[in-house]
Amino acid sequence: MDHQPFWNPVIETMPREKLVQLQLKKFKRIFNWTYSHSKFHKGLFDSAGVTPDDIRSLADIKKVPKVEKSMMRDFQCKDPFPYGDALCVPLEEVSIFRQTSGTTGQPVYQPDTWQDWEWWSECWSYILWAQGYRPSDRVFIPFGYNIFVAFWAGHYAAEKLGCEVVPGGVLDTQSRILKIQELQATAMMATPTYILNMADVAKNKMGIDPSLLSINKITCAGEPGAGIPSTKKRMEDAWGAKVFDHSGATEIGAWSYECAHQPCGMHVNEAMFLVEIEDIKTGKIIEEPGKKGKMIITALDRIAQPCIRFDSKDVIEWDFGPCSCGRTFRVIRGGVIGRADDITKVKGVLLSPAAIEEVVRSIEGLGDEFEVIVDKQGDIDRIKLKVELKPEVAQSSIETALKDQLRLKTNLGYRIEYYDYGSLPRYDVKAKRFKDLRKKHAIDKECRL
To answer: 24: how many CB neighbours lie within 10 A of its CB?
Structure first.
């Protein structure tokens, strides 16, 4: 079994036509379940004139109205407390509570039954096995175990695979590094920001070269960093390990993963999720590869609070061909590129924060941290980039390259501020490096009028 490249070879190598049939069968099942058990969803579907009898093919699914996070915040204010009228099971069947991180507003509560939690673990088992986790691994998980889903399911999936799991819990960063060193852990899971932060602390505060530790594989989630080549390279160079990308969400599940073949993108677990890519401007579903849109996703097996046609705001695109690993699950090219609500116009140019990250992390003389601030001077957009210089690196040695690469990759000019190494904020979980102050500027202007 250890040498088998697939966690579930029947499902992961299923011919496309059979896989599509499976998705349709599962969509009909979860749609019927939700229509029959969720007051919120039944009202939403009825208002759109869609019933279970109307779903006969995958093409019919686009008739089903989308759900946005704002709707979830609304329905959780209703009975039964605290989940609201989208709950499809009696309260006594809810065994797991999680909530979103709240980075985009009021947190959303997510109930799961024990069956749902087993489903979470199974989703993660696909991920970890594809990335080379095996029973011989000792997996260190350096995150504060709390109400966010984070790597909870990754923990249980690693146990399911037969790995030994070391929970890093309440340990501080230095204690976590010492525990990795002491136990010779071989793998870990964290956000890209924290992986880089740990390497920085190990090298510059503890005199430990993280690349000489025993870690040989790292699974990242929570941010797009592991899908950004320059950020992935920084992590791999720092730790001397392979870094793998993964994307999931509390209200969705663990829906995608990078396999050991690293196809410059992530597989969608199409046996458990139906992913549609919607053109941001026209709303049409994109089937062809290489065209960006926002992801509309359905979790095909989650029953307590179903996720049907959820507008994730994640920007993705289909890749041009299958991965060489042999999986028939499609690949999203470059992973999650960003969020539709993060991609904004500055001076008439569409800007993704991930493009700035790619540039900053590609310049050797710059530290890992940076900050982007967009505001207005009068009616003119301004964009400022704060970066850190590595010790003993002169500003003059990197300034031209930084400006040129920013202009090339983003088609914008920046006011660049240089800071001493270690001056900018550090983050343990999700970083908040992009700040658009133009809305505040508009409100202030209106108040003055």
So the answer is: 19
